[in-house]
Each structure stands twice: as C-alpha cells, then as structure tokens.
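Below is our example:
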Amino acid sequence: MMTLLKYDFRRNISSLLAGLAILIVIQIVLASFLPEVESGILAIVTYIGIGVALFVKMIKTYWSNIRAYNRRLVPVSELSHVVSPLLFGTICGLALFAVGVLHFTIYNAAYPGSQVASYIEIINIGISDVATGVLFAWWTATFMAVTIFLSISIGGSFRFKGGPWIGIVSFFILSTLVSWLDNLIFSGRIDPMDVFQVTESDTEISFTSSMFEWSGAVYAHIVFEAVLLALFIAATVYLNSKKVEV
C-alpha cells in the first residue's frame, strides 16, 4: 500500500505544489489590498475551496487506481486501492490544516490586536473544540469518500456506456438509505446549528461555541457509521476484484 501511496504523491506532486503556490499568492494579495474583515472571510473561503479541490483529487486518484491498466500491475491488494486514496486525502488535508494554523499564527503575531483575533476570543473556541471539529470534518469526508468510491465501483461494474450514470444514481440511493437508517435508529442527525449559541441583549451580542458533547448517543452514532463504512469498503473491494474491468 505504501508503494501505491508514494506513486499517488509522485503523480500529483506538481498539482499539489501549484495549489500551494496559488494559496500563498492569494493570501498575500488579500492581506495587501483588502480590509481586514473582508480579507479574513475570503481567506477562509479560499482554504475551503482548496479543501474541496483536494477532495476531488482524492476521488480522481481512486478512479485511476481501479481503471488505469498500469496501476493494476502494481503488486498490492484490492483493499490498498481503497485505503491509499483515503490516506492521500488525509495527509493532504492535514497539510492544508497545518498551513492554515501557520498562517493564523504568523498573522496573529504580526497583528496582535486584529479584529480576527478578537472574534476568535469572543467565540471562545479552545484547542479541544478545534480538535473535535477537525475529527468531525475528517470523519464526514471519509464516509462520503467511501460512499463515492462504492458508487464508482458499482458504475464500473457495468460495461455499457450508462455505467457512470448508474454510479451517480447509486450514490444518491446509498446516501438516502444511510439517512433513512440514521433517522430510523437515532431519530435524526445532530443539528449543526446546535454547535453555536447566540445570546442578544440591549448592549451586545454574545456568540459562543458549545461544540458537540461526547455522549453515549454520539458514540453509538459513530459505531453505526463505522459498521456501514466497513460494509461499504468490503463491497467496494469485492466489486473491484470481481466486477470492475480496466
């Protein structure tokens, strides 16, 4: 699997470095020519855009793993073709997060009294909250990626031209099925708006973060999704080894 992962990075290193260069140039331009609040908002949007691009790159990497003839010659298991893109996306995501933390650290050191620092202090988000948010984002992205992997493999199992459309329909069916089971067992998902609490008075607006409470229901929900994740990966490996043709 490490051989496949190294190949993925070597294959994508040019586009990854280009994305990093674009990110740095955009942040410099935003900080130089726009007011602080606007540049901060656009900086966050830029990081989100790069993150989405990395997610798409991970999906394309998986597609190459199972469809390119030369990739099938690499002596690795079918499971590696699924796990390697996930590791690729995780490492790239952590690198992007590290760049964002470094960016904020440098900016906060250069402008200690900035409005951005004041907003973060008002929101009152601690290190544990950030770690929880990162883990939640990683788990959500991983579950969605595996669902897309399975949908691609389902579409690739059909030899006629309608295979890609079958993959798209499969993704919506799988997503709907997961949502239905989730609502049936847990009576609805955790509302993202419950993460924040807003209190308004005559003089000020207090905006604080409560984040998620790690209760038994949350752990049960994670176990539920972990079981589905394992089933999806097993189904993907089976389709890749028995049905999907190069």
